[in-house]
Amino acid sequence: MYEFLQYLVCDAMTPEPIAMSPKAKLREAEALFEVHDFNGVPVVDDQRHLLGILTKFDLLKAFIFDFHTLVPHYDEIMEQTIETVMTSHPVSVEPQLPLSRLLQKLVEMRAKSLPVVKEGRLVGMIAREDVLKALRRAAIQHETPAREEQ
Amino acid sequence: MTTLLYTHPRCLEHDAGFGHPECPARLTAILNALKTASFVTLEWREAPEASLEQLTRIHSLKHVERIFARVPRHGHYAIDGDTIISPQSGEAALRAAGAVCAAVDAVLKGEANNAFCAIRPPGHHAEPHQAMGFCLFNNAAIGAAHARVVHGLERVAVIDFDVHHGNGTQAAFETQQGYLYISTHQAYIYPGTGRREERGIGNIVNVPLSASAGSTELRQAWIQDVEPALHAFQPQLILISAGFDAHYLDPLAGLNFCEEDYEWLTGNILAVAKQYCQGRVVSMLEGGYNLQALAASVAAHVKVLIDAPLAA
Ligand SMILES: [Zn+2]
Predict the structure, then answer these.
(1) How many C-alpha atoms does A110 have within 13 Å on its Cβ side?
(2) Minimal Cα distance from B292: which residue of A?
(3) CATH number, domain at B254?
(4) Which pLDDT value is given to residue A140?
């Protein structure tokens, strides 16, 4: 585990991840979720400033019953833009954050993944799977000295 | 007047094994930072070894003998899963405790206003009968006892801002008159002690902070708990268990202090010291495991110590 303590978020994240425009349709996001195993996709402007994150959960939320219609219409909802249902001001982390701290954060928030942001710009995504992989890597690279007494 | 820096090369040779976070590079990073131009006025002194008498004011003789019996000739010996010693660890631990006693002597004799001990292994988890949590001897408690017994002080305070609770220091003092132990730390992490209800004989003040607390919560804790306790106690000497692992980049915990917080905290401690004990403060290194954050935080802390006489 000592090795793991030295890892930073930037060592384990997916760099330059796929991101979407706030004006893209939910339909496009849905198509992306079908192809990739994403939990959520970051939403950015032209300069890749992070605006929000759209998760599968946000997508589901678009379908809950509300006062607009008696029955939600799939095609209509899928024509909405991402910015109408995305989570704005999402929690993000710095690339230099120790991975051990990111792990605490994921657990505390029950988050599946978080955007990684440097000076306002999206530079990566870090997911539960990435942390699990890093833990495995650390365990292989370093064995702690055996206990000689207890 | 001057600020003293106590350290010893042996403290760089205590080695807890490959990849261990409590590594010699921590001290190297600190010493390099303190060799830069802003610190030319620091007076460097070599830490002496603590005497058996100094150690056994806090620790049982059996504890001391056991530590030395386990120091290996080669390789490493694991006291517990994380508290690991190497051939030089025995002497390093003696130099660490000795540094604090020597600093106490110097400051109480008026040779300097204050002192920082750049030492390893750290001390605040070491209990009277048990080494643990990277710690062998409780440097802070040994220094405080030295001030009481040798210099006849009646009231010595230890302020511990390491992210972990100093269970060892608390254990040493919780039934002893003349000592005040104040700790801010992250709740529910190692070693699990340090709840508010743990008050000793009214001389223990624990301020657990919730995970992810930062500058705001620290300032609140100082105003609501730490400062009033110090005013009530009126210390004749203040020791600081200066761990820097509450820094926002530290990999071992979750609090979010920054360099400015350590600066602010140190300034406030010095103001209290000025009020009650002519500014007499002896600070010593405990934790802090992100090398850059550690070096920068220690630099911020020591800079305030140096500037103290002018500022106050
Ligand atoms: Zn600590």
Answers:
(1) 1
(2) A96
(3) 3.40.800.20
(4) 84
- Among residues B124, B125, B165, B247, which one is catalytic? B125
Is B176 inside any structural domain? yes
Q: Does residue B48 form part of some domain?
A: yes
- Taking CB atoms and an 8 Å limit, are A142 and B78 in contact across chains? no
Q: Which chain B residues are closer than 8 Å to A100 by Cβ?
A: 251-252
CB of A146 within 8 Å of a chain B CB? The answer is yes
Output the domain CATH number for residue A7.
Answer: 3.10.580.10
Q: pLDDT, tens digit, for every residue of B242-295?
A: 999 999 999 999 999 999 999 999 999 999 999 999 999 999 999 999 999 999
| Number of domains, chain A | 1
Residue of A nearest to B290 (CA): A6
Count the domains in chain B: 1
Q: ipTM of the predicted structure?
A: 0.76
CB proximity A84 to B under 8 Å: no
Q: Is residue B311 part of a domain?
A: no
The count of other CB atoms within 10 Å of the CB of residue B291 is: 17
Indicate whether B116 belongs to any domain.
yes
**Chain A (39-58) residues lying within 8 Å, Cβ to Cβ, of chain B:** none
Q: Which residues does A132 contact at the CB level (< 8 Å), separation at least 6?
A: none
Chain B: residue nearest A108 by CA? B211
pLDDT in tens, A45-95: 999 999 999 999 999 988 887 666 667 788 889 999 999 999 999 999 999
Residue B293 sits at the chain A interface (C-beta within 8 Å): no
Q: How far is the CA of B134 from the centre of ligand 1 (A)?
A: 9
User: Given CB atoms, is B20 within the 8 Å cutoff of chain A?
Assistant: yes
Range of the structural domain that residue A144 is part of: 2-149
B66 lies within 8 A of chain A by CB = no
**Which among A104, A145, A146 has the least Cβ separation from residue B254?**
A104
